[in-house]
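Onboarding guide, step 5: your first structure request.
Type a short instruction followed by the sequence, for example:

Predict the 3D structure of this protein.
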Amino acid sequence: MDAKLTLSFNQDVVAKAKKYAADNNISLSRLVEHLLTQVTAKKYKSLEDFPVADWVSMVAEGEVIYKKTSKKTAKQSKEEFFNAQK
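The system replies with structure tokens like these:
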């Protein structure tokens, strides 16, 4: 059974991901699902341990920066996100 999920990405990344998915005859949803399946298939201690596939490198641009989360509440994080979008 599929479940809906709302995610936010940089517009350029979305455009490239959509093109990649279309070129490879796969939906963007299945492409993201595949990546999440790969990440959750093993017990990685951090994202730095995860072997990023070549297709992710094709879709992404620039250096990957992993942000460490602070001990903010969900409400604080949400407010910070929406304030940054203004």
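Each response can be followed by summary notes, for example: The helical segments are 11-23, 28-41, 54-59, 74-84.
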